[in-house]
């Protein structure tokens, strides 16, 4: 799920200079196609009413349930026509600069493999179900499509400034584990949640995690855990508002962050806006953050 770790230093055998590999769709086995269908059906039992409108709409527009693992040769023309994005296959996690370069050019790197039937609920590296089912529907949303590209460019910049650790937290708490307040309740838009049956329920319904209104600088100071359900989720009022909040120049924020301490995953600060079940996080003022 984390796209920020170096695994190899140069592209492995068979990969292109940009680390892409062929999807080799014809080589998937029946068992692998069945795994996709099983995971898809399971999520569709859970996600209506829980996943954001943007996600559900994207899922429908892309038609990812035609039987088995989607063929990128079929998927890409649809996605490209909607927002100019495409999906490319990579052999697992890629170096940060490679990842950012793909995003900055509206290419989303996806794992080629799918999890084994005995790993439906847990895997360490992102597979094609997480990457395509989890991430790609959101890329059909024009605002989210822009956000992801901006993140790619921002990543290149953060890397050159030595601030990647802070920026990666923004990716984690939005792209991977973000919640959205749609006015009539909280919904999921983060790929790490929508691709997980158990966390889809936990993130919205469990009493234990904190759900805190989105605050850019606060997020960039907050640790995250990769080994368990999240202890804290951040709630945006809309994708448009997320975009607006991240348009600003992060330079001054990075300067402040250099002197700031990290915030633990269970910490609630006095100024945090904690969202409890049934409370609306935001007054809806045209999708912008209420003051
Ligand atoms: N505005 C950010 C910067 O100045 C770039 C960015 C946009 C980063 C969106 C993440 C998401 O660096
Ligand atoms: Fe991911």
Automatic annotation (TrEMBL):
Its cofactor is Fe(2+). Transmembrane segments: none annotated. It catalyses: (6R)-L-erythro-5,6,7,8-tetrahydrobiopterin + L-phenylalanine + O2 = (4aS,6R)-4a-hydroxy-L-erythro-5,6,7,8-tetrahydrobiopterin + L-tyrosine. The keyword Oxidoreductase applies. GO terms for molecular function: phenylalanine 4-monooxygenase activity. InterPro entries: ArAA_hydroxylase (IPR001273), ArAA_hydroxylase_Fe/CU_BS (IPR018301), ArAA_hydroxylase_sf (IPR036951), Aro-AA_hydroxylase_C_sf (IPR036329), Aromatic-AA_hydroxylase_C (IPR019774), Phe-4-hydroxylase_mono (IPR005960). Residues 1-291 form the Biopterin-dependent aromatic amino acid hydroxylase family profile domain. It comes from the Bacteria. Its EC number is 1.14.16.1. Pathway: Amino-acid degradation; L-phenylalanine degradation; acetoacetate and fumarate from L-phenylalanine: step 1/6. Keywords: Iron, Metal-binding, Monooxygenase, Oxidoreductase, Phenylalanine catabolism. The keyword Nucleotide-binding does not apply. Belongs to the biopterin-dependent aromatic amino acid hydroxylase family. This is Phenylalanine-4-hydroxylase. It comes from Brevundimonas staleyi. The gene is phhA.
């Amino acid at each position: 799920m984390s796209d920020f770790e170096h695994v190899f230093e140069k592209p492995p055998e068979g990969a292109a200079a940009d680390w892409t590999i062929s999807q080799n769709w014809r080589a998937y086995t029946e068992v692998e196609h069945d795994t996709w269908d099983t995971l898809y059906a399971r999520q569709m039992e859970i996600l209506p009413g829980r996943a954001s409108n943007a996600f559900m709409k994207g899922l429908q527009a892309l038609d990812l349930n035609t039987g088995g693992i989607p063929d990128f040769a079929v998927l890409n023309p649809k996605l490209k026509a909607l927002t100019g994005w495409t999906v490319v296959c990579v052999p697992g996690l890629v170096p940060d600069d490679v990842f950012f370069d793909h995003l900055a050019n509206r290419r989303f790197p996806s794992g080629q493999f799918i999890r084994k039937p005995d790993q439906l609920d847990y895997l360490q590296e992102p597979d094609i179900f997480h990457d395509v089912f989890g991430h790609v529907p959101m890329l059909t949303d024009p605002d989210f499509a822009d956000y992801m590209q901006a993140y790619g460019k921002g990543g290149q910049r953060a890397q050159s400034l030595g601030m990647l650790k802070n920026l990666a937290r923004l990716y984690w708490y939005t792209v991977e584990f973000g919640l959205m307040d749609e006015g009539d309740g909280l919904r999921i838009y983060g790929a790490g949640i929508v691709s997980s049956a158990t966390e889809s329920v936990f993130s919205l319904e469990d009493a234990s995690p904190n759900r805190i209104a989105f605050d850019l600088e606060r997020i960039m100071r907050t640790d995250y855990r990769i080994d368990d359900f999240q202890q804290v989720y951040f709630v945006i009022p809309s994708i448009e508002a997320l975009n607006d909040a991240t348009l600003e120049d992060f330079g001054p924020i990075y300067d402040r962050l250099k002197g700031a301490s990290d915030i633990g995953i269970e910490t609630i600060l006095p100024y945090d806006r904690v969202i409890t079940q049934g409370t609306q996080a935001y007054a809806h003022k045209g999708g912008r953050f209420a003051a």
